[in-house]
Amino acid sequence: MDLPKLTAQIRAFAEARDWLPHHTPKNLVMAMSVEMAELLEHFQWLTPQQAEQLGRDPVRREPVEDEMADVLIYMLRLADVLGVDLERAIHAKMIKNALKHPAVPR
């Protein structure tokens, strides 16, 4: 996944629709929260086994993929607006996670 390329594509999409004035950090976080709730709806009331099988059902999987994409689109847009290098932030966070949660010896 080329995050800078995706970010530029998403920015161009928003610019072409004159959405940039509305893409404030607050609005983007709120929109992302709505999309997460829409994703959650697909899993609400499922057993763990049913949730795992959801990914194998093409009819039920497509709307889940759409919601996942919406969440990531808003995240990339938010990072763009805030000037956050998500690749760097992810790598730094993984290092912190590894220190906080050491691997279990096998």
Automatic annotation (TrEMBL):
Domain of life where this protein originates: Bacteria
UniProt xrefs under Gene3D superfamilies: MazG-like
Pfam families found in the cross-reference section: MazG-like (PF12643)
This protein's name: Nucleotide pyrophosphohydrolase
Species, as recorded: Chitiniphilus purpureus
